[in-house]
Amino acid sequence: MPHDRTLLYAGHEFTVEHLRSHAKEEPGWSGPYALESRRIIFPVGRTMLDLRWGGSTWQVDGLTAMHLADAMVYQLRPATHATRRSLVVSRHRPSRADDAAPAFCLLSPRSLYRVHAAQHRLRAGDGGTVAIASLVDELGTSRRQSPLTGAVARARRLLAETADRDTRLSLHELADSVSRSPFHLARSFRHETGLSLHQYRQHLRLASAMERLADGDADLAGIAHDLGFCSQSHLGAVFRREVGVTLGEARRVLAGSSKSGNSSARI
C-alpha cells in the first residue's frame, strides 16, 4: 500500500505524522512491513482494513487505535479501494517487554474527537502535543481487543460498511446475514467488543460525522440526513451526549483541519 506522509510534529519523545494509505487496485494482503520503532496509529477516517501478525488477524475500523511494537513485521489488507487516513505517533524510547505484541483498542467518541482536535492544533501550529501524549498514555489502560473471528467479525464488518447509510440493517437482518440468532449474536458481540451492536453502530456514525466536520463539511442537516438520523437536532443530542461538545463547537474546532501547510512525502 503506497502512503502519503505529512509531518505534523517532531520532538525528542515522539514524532506525529498524518498518513494517507492508498489501496491497490485489487485489494489483497500487502507485502510484509517491518517497523524500526514502535508506533501508535489513531484513526481519523472511516475505512476498514485487516492486519495480520503471526497467526492472528485483527479488524481495524474507524474506531480502532493500534499500538505496534518495535521490529514488528506485519501485513495489511484493505477492505475497500477507499483511502485510509490515520494519525501516526512514532515513539523514540525503547519498548518494554510487555509491548512485544500489538495491541488494538476501540476508542470512545470522546477520545476520537480528541484525536481530531489534536490533529487540527498540530496542523495549525497551535500545540496539540500534550493531548497526543495523553491519548497515548490512555491506551495503556484501555480494554484491548482480541483477534476477531466468526460471526462477530462478520457482523462488525457489515456494520462498518453500512453504518453511514440512511437504510441500516436491523438486528434480525444482521443476525441472518451471519447465520446466528439475534440473542446469540448480541451477547457474543458485547462479550468480544465491550459494546452492544447499537452502541458500536452509533459510534461509527459519530466517527463519520467527525470526519466530515474535519473535512470542512458545514452542512449539519445534510450530515444528519446522510447518517440516518431523523433530524439535525437528533444528531446534535447524540453527539453532545457521546462526545461532550455540541455539533456547532465541533464544527468550529475542526474546521480547516484537513488543510496543511506542511509538505508531504510519498513512500
TrEMBL record:
Name the source's superkingdom. Answer: Bacteria
Molecular-function annotations in GO: DNA-binding transcription factor activity; sequence-specific DNA binding
Q: Which UniProt keywords apply?
A: DNA-binding, Transcription, Transcription regulation
Query: HTH araC/xylS-type domain: which residues?
Result: 153-253
**Residue span of the signal peptide, if any?**
none
Q: Which SMART domains match?
A: HTH_ARAC (SM00342)
Name of this chain's protein: AraC family transcriptional regulator
